Amino acid sequence: xxxxxxxxxxxxxxWPQLLELxxxxxxxxxxxxxxxKAMEHLVLRAxxxxxxxxxxxxxxxxxxxxxxxxxxxxxxxxxSCLVESKDTTDKVxxxxxxxxxxxxxxxxxxxxGLVFSRSGFTEPALILAQFMSPLNILLYxxxxxxxxxxxxxxxxxxxxxxxxxxxxALPNYDTRAGAIT
Length: 181
Hints:
The chain is an alpha/beta fold.
């Protein structure tokens, strides 16, 4: 479960403060946060500010043992999404996408996965995401995250990304310019 202090800290941020925090995350200058936690909380707070219902990071346990760590969940406009955030300097490989896929297989069929990567995705990760069946994981790269923070909008771009995924089978549709990343 997310630390209460982290949740309280991030909930004090408005849109301009989230954008400033994003810039610090991009520089790797967030020493007050545990590794990866600033980005994890920033993404959830941005959705929360845009009207989504958010479930903060938590663990799933079976028979007293932790079997999953979930970075967060977003519920909005009829969509329910597991969120995975990766704050790394290297592009994200297939591992987090595969992990999220298995988490989604344990959920109702309508659940989506959202993977946010500060540094983007490797070519194998992009190929895997596009050819998974069902196609239920959407990808966000750092430049798109910054754009959405500047626009102060997360929910409607998620709906657009989802529509494009349904219409064109594009899990990595870039909402900045309508371009395929």
